[in-house]
Amino acid sequence: MPINRRIITIIVTVFAITLLTGCNAQDKEVEKKPAVQEIEVQEETQIDEKPEVKVPQEETSPVTLDKETVPDEVVSDVKNAVEAQYVKVKKCKKCHLKQFKSWKKTTMAKSFENLKPGVNAEAKKKAGIDPDKDYTADADCLRCHTTGYGKPGGFVSLEKTPGLINVQCEACHGPGGKYNLIMKKHRKTFKVDELTAVGFVVLKGTSAEKECLVCHGDDNPFNEKIDPKYKWDFKERRKNAHQYFPLKYKH
Ligand code: HEC
Ligand code: HEC
Ligand code: HEC
Ligand code: HEC
User: Fold this and answer.
1) Tell me, what's the pLDDT at 84?
2) What is the predicted pLDDT for the residue at 35?
3) What is the pLDDT of residue 42?
4) What is the rounded distance in angstroms from the CA atom of residue 224 to the CA atom of residue 233?
5) What is the Å distance from ligand 1's center to 96 Cα?
6) φ, ψ for residue 27, nearest 5 deg
């Protein structure tokens, strides 16, 4: 009984606060924090016995921008003071399992392997790359074979950021530290503009090609001049980044 009453109280409180504050939580001050937090608690612990001690069980990553450590940084006024960090593919997988599964089958999901000595020796020789050399710490390879190399919160080294090897979701979609929180809080109602303001990269249409050319351009050692099979064709390649599934909501 007390639990039911508690839940009702929370719902009523949240509803009242929502009415008072409107939907523009984004622009509001730090005072709004309790409101957002209560919404969180209510959503995640509906049938939990002890809502007050339950902390949402998210896997924490070494590059922490979790709401435990940086509470509501999305709605805070200092939102652009820190650049968005890379959160790693596991985070995206939790909500986008289908895209994850098809991406996992591509060479991008294991592209770091190619930097190890002996791997893909024939292809390396043809491209004038020493097949016996270890390139796993070579800046010139890392920028294309890892996620966020040289960017804030991106890949640093195999020792420091092992979770950011390979060409992950965020290599194309942008660092997710902030936009994944927006997706989480406002599943149905977020606007793409809100995401791009915090690092999300729009990949719709042909203008997205420039994002690919950062790695698929002529400075890629495995280009058309080495072998026609490396020819870059945006329309074709785009189909194979991963499988696409229609969104449920308009953003
Ligand atoms: C807590 C859940 C959650 C997490 C974590 C999450 N997303 Fe999303 N994402 C969503 C929801 C919900 C939508 C909207 C789905 C819909 O409308 O059908 C969405 C939409 C998207 C879209 C489409 C946006 C558009 O409107 O064009 C992309 C791309 C995307 N997510 C990529 C990512 C990536 C990359 C990550 C990891 C950095 C990530 N998401 C993490 C829930 C999440
Ligand atoms: C951070 C660098 C980077 C970016 C950005 C990037 N790619 Fe790639 N991509 C790679 C690398 C590296 C490989 C090769 C992986 C390997 O074989 O080691 C690759 C491979 C691919 C493949 C082959 C997958 C397979 O299994 O056959 C496709 C398709 C592809 N990329 C599409 C795209 C598209 C489309 C974009 C832009 C929307 C893009 N890539 C952006 C680095 C990148
Ligand atoms: C400018 C970005 C870029 C740089 C720098 C780069 N790569 Fe790649 N690499 C790619 C892309 C893109 C592909 C996929 C080519 C394709 O499928 O057309 C690739 C593919 C490969 C492959 C697989 C070739 C095959 O036929 O399967 C190997 C091996 C590889 N890279 C090793 C390296 C090494 C070692 C270095 C550093 C000396 C390096 N790459 C530097 C972008 C890059
Ligand atoms: C090689 C670049 C690339 C990589 C890597 C990549 N995506 Fe995408 N993704 C795209 C493109 C291109 C689109 C289509 C345009 C759009 O909707 O933004 C897209 C669309 C999406 C969408 C919108 C819904 C849909 O299915 O069309 C989601 C969600 C998404 N990606 C999630 C992910 C997740 C999760 C990962 C990692 C497991 C990932 N993407 C890795 C290029 C990429």
Assistant:
1) 84
2) 41
3) 37
4) 11
5) 7
6) -90, -5
pLDDT given at position 7: 60
Q: Is 8 in the pocket of ligand 2 (CB under 6 A)?
A: no
> Is the CB of 92 inside a 6 Å radius of any atom of ligand 4?
yes
- The pLDDT tens digits for 103-124 are 999 999 999 999 999 999 999 9
- Residue in this structure with the two tokens 């099979």, named with its chain if needed: 229
248 ligand 4 Cβ < 6 A: no
CA of 166 from ligand 2 middle (Å) equals 10
Q: Domains, the chain, ranges and CATH?
A: 89-239 (1.10.1130.10)
Question: How many angstroms does the Cα of residue 167 sit away from the middle of ligand 2?
Answer: 7
Ligand 3 centre distance from Cα of residue 222 (Å): 5
Q: What is the dihedral of CA 158, 222, 153, 237, to 10 degrees?
A: -130
Query: Whose CA is closest to atom 5 on ligand 4?
Result: 169
R_g over Cα of the chain = 22
Q: What spacing in Å lies between the alpha carbon of 169 and ligand 1's midpoint?
A: 11
Q: Whose alpha carbon is nearest atom 24 of ligand 3?
A: 123
Q: Half-sphere exposure of 127 toward its Cβ, with a 13 Å CA cutoff?
A: 19
> What is the pLDDT, as a whole number, of residue 76?
40
Residues of the chain with pLDDT under 70: 1-82
Query: Which amino acid is it at 33?
Result: K
**What ligand 3 atom has the least distance to the C-alpha of 124?**
29
Q: Are 143 and 150 in contact (CB under 8 A)?
A: yes
From the list 183, 179, 181, the residue with the least C-alpha distance to 195 is 179
Contact of 165 with 137, CB cutoff 8 Å: no
Kindly report the pTM of this predicted structure.
0.81
Residue with tokens 């606007």: 191
